[in-house]
Design goal:
The protein has 497 residues and is α/β, with parallel strands linked by helices. The chain has two domains: 250 residues, Aspartate Aminotransferase, domain 2 (3-Layer(aba) Sandwich), CATH 3.40.640; 119 residues, Aspartate Aminotransferase, domain 1 (Alpha-Beta Complex), CATH 3.90.1150. Helix content is 40%, strand content 12%. The protein has 13 helices and eleven strands. A seven-stranded mixed sheet has the order 1-7-6-5-4-2-3, with helices on both faces. The chain has a four-stranded antiparallel sheet with strand order 8-9-11-10. Strand 4, helix 8 and strand 5 form a beta-alpha-beta unit. The chain is globular, with a radius of gyration of 25 Å. The structure holds pyridoxal-5'-phosphate (PLP). Pyridoxal-5'-phosphate binds next to helix 5. Its cofactor is pyridoxal 5'-phosphate.
């Protein structure tokens, strides 16, 4: 019988992973990736394709038979790459950079290699324990108090993004208060942020069931440098308490998304602690700078808050996605999010001797992401990570100097990290509507060249351009070239008028 003869019908056995085949294809893929990084500057940084461009280029359905990797790679080059906005381009100055490194890439390969689904300790003790070690290492680097570390009374966990860090802490805070006041009072819970708090906070609040009218967005003003005023917070909280509502949670930001404003943690914690409000610090971008002693003061007062999140995928070379969350009181997280179904139970689950990270996050399965951070921390060491931050800050200062040297432009917000907010304003005193139109046109002109990608924001009604330095491959010459391009755009626009 054919089916009993091991040589008769190879094709009937599906082999999705063959180590030797993997070695061959892996070499090709690594070559492709290294080539991409090498020639990335040649692509337009902001893609020029139109919506729906890809559907017309690809077949209607998946192939019936297998296709070789060479063919697939060719299609990636011809069809996929042209539709990419190149976040790793040295000419990418939009949003905040998403920084990367060889070390993190190798860590990611390992993470993928093991494909561990480490929901609890036993599901891969190394995955849980390395994450605990790395979170303590990073906490040490940031000089966080022991109360946030496993070596103290707290602990850290890697979430996917800030949104989840906000969501899980919000739910922990919520359940803790509902335990006291009863679930009937859900609609009395009030949460606070400034109008500069990241928009994902509102989303997290809605997911957590906070009544939308109870989400306070306190206006930041230009005199506080776009940070949240503790006096205003006190007024708003006081009014809520007087109205019989229950203050629950404050999201303070170290490095806001629009302008990198820093909320004053100590003074805000004074107010919050008085009312028993859970304080979370969102330091998604700015937090990474705090590994340098000269920036650490932005976290002053951190000992007074309940939780802190920071996304190394933004500014600590780590690839998406990696949001580090530290909490002072892990038991509140576990109480709110813990599950203990029979099919996941082992003799150690639920015991105090192990951490089951599934109880610290939204999902059950989780990747072995700490490998990435571990490789970054070990491969570069603290000194190189600090000089990475400093070099970005230096380039931003340089850009700020260039803007200041041209009287047609003005700086719009204090630049603390590696973001410069500015605008073209050649005829001081002309209407703000005119200035806004001018800057919108300038941005469109710059981005349509494909040579630089920048974005904008509106703060307190004022439209401004954002120049975020820090893409991993950016060097001084790219910053200079970008500035020349911006000036050329201004020349073209102003000559046109
Ligand atoms: C970028 C950013 C976020 C969103 O962060 P992710 O971790 O990338 O989801 C949240 N808050 C601030 C202040 C940010 O700058």
């Amino acid at each position: 019988m054919g089916s009993l003869d091991p040589n008769s019908d190879h094709s009937s056995q599906f082999k999705p992973l063959d180590p030797e085949e993997f070695r061959k294809q892996g070499h090709q893929m690594v070559d492709f990736i290294a080539d991409y990084y090498q020639k990335i500057e040649k692509y337009p940084v902001l893609t020029q394709v139109e919506p729906g461009y890809l559907r017309t280029r690809l077949p209607e359905s998946a192939p019936y038979g297998p296709e070789p990797i060479e063919t697939i790679l060719k299609d990636i080059e011809n069809d996929i790459v042209p539709g990419m906005t190149h976040w790793l381009s040295p000419n990418f100055f939009a949003f905040f950079p998403a920084t990367v490194s060889t070390a993190a890439f190798l860590g990611e390969m390992l993470c993928t290699c093991f494909n561990s689904v480490g929901f609890n300790w036993l599901a891969s003790p190394a995955a849980t324990e390395l994450e605990m070690v790395v979170m303590d290492w990073l906490a040490n680097l940031l000089k966080l108090p022991k109360t946030f570390m496993f070596s103290g009374s707290g602990g850290g966990v890697i979430q996917n993004t800030t949104s989840e860090s906000l969501l899980v802490t919000l739910i922990a805070a919520r359940d803790h208060v509902l335990d006291r006041i009863g679930t009937d009072n859900m609609c009395k819970l009030v949460v606070y942020g400034s109008d500069q708090t990241h928009s994902t906070f509102t989303k997290a609040c809605k997911i957590a069931g906070i009544c939308p009218p109870n989400i306070r967005s306190i206006p930041a003003t230009i005199d506080t440098g776009f940070s949240l005023s503790p006096a205003l917070l006190r007024k708003v909280v006081g009014a809520d308490v007087a109205a019989g509502l229950v203050p629950l949670y404050l999201c303070a930001t170290v490095g806001t998304t629009s302008t990198t404003a820093v909320d004053p943690l100590t003074a805000l914690a004074d107010v919050a602690n008085e009312y028993g409000i859970w304080v979370h610090v969102d330091a998604a971008y700015g937090g990474s700078a705090c590994i340098c002693p000269e920036f650490r003061h932005y976290l002053n007062g951190i000992e007074r808050v309940n939780s802190l999140s920071l996304s190394p995928h933004k500014w600590l070379l780590s690839y998406l996605d990696c949001s580090c969350l530290w909490v002072k009181n892990p038991s509140r997280l576990v109480k709110a999010l813990g599950t203990n179904p029979e099919y996941l139970r082992s003799k150690l689950s639920g015991s105090d001797s192990v951490v089951d990270y599934k109880d610290w996050q939204v999902g059950t399965g989780r990747r072995f992401k700490s490998l990435r951070l571990w490789l970054v921390l070990r491969s570069y060491g603290v000194t190189n990570l600090q000089s990475h931050i400093r070099s970005d800050v230096r380039m931003a200062k340089m850009f700020e100097g260039l803007v200041k040297s041209d009287p047609r432009f003005e700086i719009m917000a204090p630049s603390r990290f590696a973001l410069v907010c500015f605008r073209l304003n050649p005829y001081l005193g002309s209407g703000s509507c005119y200035t806004e139109t001018l800057n919108r046109k300038l941005l469109e002109w710059i981005n349509s060249t494909g040579r630089v990608y920048m974005t904008h924001t509106v703060v307190c009604g004022v439209y401004m351009l954002r120049f975020a330095v820090g893409a991993t491959l950016t060097e001084e010459r790219h910053v200079f070239a970008a500035w020349k391009l911006i000036q050329a755009g201004a020349d073209a626009l102003l000559n046109d008028i």
